[in-house]
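Progress report, Aim 2. The chain analyzed during this reporting quarter is listed below.
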Amino acid sequence: MPERKFLAAACAAVISLAASGCAVNQTQSEPAAEARVRADQPIEPSPSDPFAAIDRAFDRLAMDRSTASSDDSGATPLIWPRLVDRFSISSCPEGSRAARWANWYADNADYMQRVLVRAQPWMYLIVDELERRDLPGELALLPVVESAFDPFAYSHGRAAGPWQFLSGTARDFGITIDDWYDGRRDFVAATAAALDYLEYLNDLFDGDWALALAAYNAGQGRVGRAIRRNTARGLGTEWHELPLPRETLGYVPKLKGLGCLFREPARYAFVLPTLVDAPQVATVELDGPIDVVALAIRTGLDLTELITLNAGLNRHMTPPNGPAYLVVPVADVERVSAALRDLPESPPLKHRKIRIQRGDSLSVLARRHGTTVDALKQVNDLSSNRLIAGQTLELPGAIAEPAPQGDAEYQRVYREMAALQQQLLPTDRFIHRVRSGESLWVIARRYGIGVDDLQRMNGLGPRTLIRPGQRLVIETDRAVRSPAQSSQRYVVRQGDSLWLISRRQRVGLNELMRWNDLDPDSVLRPGQELIIHRSGDA
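Predicted C-alpha cells for the chain:
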C-alpha cells in the first residue's frame, strides 16, 4: 500500500468566475446527443435549498479571491500550464469516445463553469501533490467525473465525497469515518487517500493508468478477474477490450476527454477560467476539538463557507479524535489563529455508552456504530463475545456531544449550522409499516438502529405500544435493509421540491418523476409519500 503523505497546508487557486447550480454526476458511457439542456439542473434553485447555499458559498470564495488578486493577476502565472505540462494519458482522435466527451464538456459550458467554481479552492492543492508524487496531471480532473467537485456528493452505491470513496476503501487508505467526521467529504484527507489509492492501483496494474482508472471505478477485483478471463481465452487485455460494466468503459474516455479539453481549449471553442497559480485556502492546526459556531461568531467568518471548506464535519465541533485542523481562506489564517488563542475551552467530552438489549451481539453493535468487534472488546476489556442484556458498553471513539451553550446569537448560529448539516448530510427517511408480531426492538434491529433512536424519531415513550398497520418514520444514514426492501418511501417535508428531494436522496430527477408518475409541474404536499428506488430495484 502506498505511503500516505500529504501537505499539511492545503492550498488552492483563484478563479475569476462565479456561478451557481447543482452537481451532476455523469454516469452514462456516451455523451447524450442533445446534452446542452439537462433536465436535472434547475435554472433557479430555491434560496432555501442547502445545496444552492453551498454553491453560493463557492461563488463568494471565488469572487473574494479574484477581487483580492485583481491588482497583480497579470503578473501571477496561471495554474493551467503547470497542470497541462503533467498530462500524459489523454488523447482524443477524431470520432473517438474521448473526443465526443471533450465536445460534450465544451458544449455544456454553464455546467463546467459551476464545476470549476467548486474546484477553485482545491486545484492548487491537487497540482502541488501531483508534482510532488510525479503523477499524471489528468488526475486533477478526476473529481469532475466522479462528483462534479461536489463535497456532499453521495451515490446510489453509498460512495461519498468529491473522490467518491466507499467506506471500506476509504478506511483502508487511512480516512476516518465516525459520528463526528466523514473524511471522504474532507477534500484534504480525501485527496491524499485518492492519490494513494491511484498510485497503488497503478503499481498493481504494472503502470497502466487506463487499467488503474478502470479499477478505481469498477474495483480492482473486477478488473483483475476480467484480465484473467481474457488472458485464458487468448483475448486482449487493454482496458477497452475487457468485459467491464458499460459505465466503466465510458469512465476512462471521460477523463481523457477532459484532458484534451484542457490541453487544447481553442480546438473545442472552450474558454478556460482565469485560475491564478496561488494558494487560496490553508489548514490551521488545532490543539484539540473546537466549537465551529463560537469560532464563526468570534471571527465573523461566513458559516456556510466554513462548512463548505470543512465538509467532513458532521457536528458543530471538530472531531475530538482528529484530524486536528480547520480549512480556512488564506486571507483569514491570522484572524482565525488569533481567535483560537482566545476561544473559551470547550466543555469536557464524555465517551458515549450504550445499553445492551436482548439479541444484541458484538458484531451487530460494531456494524451499527461503525467500529469493529476487536475495538469493542479492547475498550471494554472483554475476554469473550458474550453479552448480557442490560450491560453497558463504551463505544470506541464515540463521544457524546455537549449540549450547545451560549447567548441568543450563539443559539441562532448553532441552529443554522445544525439545520444546514441535517439537510446536506446523507439521510434515508422512509416509512415502515408495522406488521403483526413486530416490536420496537425487532424493527430497530432490522434497520441497524437503537430502540431509543426509533422512539425519538416517532415521539414514542418507553412504554408506548405499537400496533399492526401503524406507520413509523425511519431516518438514518446507516439503515440496513434486506434486498426485498430496496424500495422505500420518502415523506415530503415543508419546502421540499422534486429537485431538492432528488439531490438529497442522490437519485435522478427524471427517475424520481417516473417512479411516482409525476411531471415537472407537479405540486408536492407536506406529508405526501414518494417512492424511492435504490440500486437493483428500479
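Residues 481-538 form a domain with the Membrane-bound Lytic Murein Transglycosylase D; Chain A fold (CATH 3.10.350.10). The beta strands are 14-15, 275-276, 281-285, 325-329, 350-355, 392-400, 428-433, 471-476, 487-491, 529-533. These observations will guide the mutagenesis work planned for the next reporting period.
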